[in-house]
Amino acid sequence: QAPGTDVLERPVDALRVPRDLPDRLVGELQVDGLGRQERQVVQRGEPGVLCAQGVVPAAATIERYRVPGALSVTRGVAHRRIYLDRGLVVFATSDEREVRLGNYLIRHGTLPEEAVSNAEALLAGDGVRLGQILLRLELPDQVTLDAAVADQVREILWTAFDWDSGEVVFEVGARRSEEPIRIDLPIVQVIVEGIRRASAVRRFVDRLGSGHAVLEPVEGSFAPGLFSSEEIALRGLIDGRMPVQVLCQKGPGTVAENARLLYAFFCLDLVRVKEAASVKKVQWKTEGGSLGNN
Predict the structure, then answer these.
(1) How far is CA 245 from CA 202, 203, 204, 222, 250, in A?
(2) Do residues 18 and 43 touch, judged by C-beta distance below 8 A?
(3) pTM to 2 decimal places
(4) Per residue in 26-75, pLDDT tens?
(5) How would you classify the pairing of strands 14-17 and 41-44?
């Protein structure tokens, strides 16, 4: 990966799936192409790895097929893993100190720095997690800790959606079933919320082609609670003739908010980019020869 490559524009390389994955699912994954008309190369092997175009397109593909696994996102030395199962995001981890649980509890005033430092000093590398030590020390109660961990995992998710460079890999079949605290957020909800929170809107417009790209509706229904009635009405304006830049001025929010909304529709297969009509070249001839010779 070249430095500075936009994580949303990373080309699809290959998908390697576990040997016991059904052939039907392998075929479907091969054809999908992450929202483009591309065809992926599918190989049998271990572990299953999907080199994807970015967090949002990869999550949309995973949600479509309900494939269990872990989405690994790397930028420089920072590494995050998002665990998914049956259409749900169940957990997320990070090796970045600023978003780890201890710092999160301090930043949000849940625990004082001294208490967190004392608990971290008891970590022995035997698989016992900081949250378990905190509970043993009776620093927060279970309800408070569960809420803090769920919020911390959401922070890991949302900020990863805003990374503008890095590498995204999906490992098919990797699970996190032993995690005591699961957030169990529907992937579609994570996709929409991540897009809403992202700051770099230009990348989303570029993924649609450009502001001059034309969208057309795709037959399908909206998941309950994801969009307001005003936002849903924006898709009703998509007629296969109006360009993105005009649609962005007609939605219920600001231009940037409407661009995010259109990209969310695109990722959830509620709209698609209309292919430009092919141009036929016509050569006119006269008795004196072609016009090009005059």
Answers:
(1) 12, 14, 12, 23, 9
(2) no
(3) 0.71
(4) 444 443 333 333 333 333 333 344 444 567 777 887 887 787 888 888 88
(5) parallel
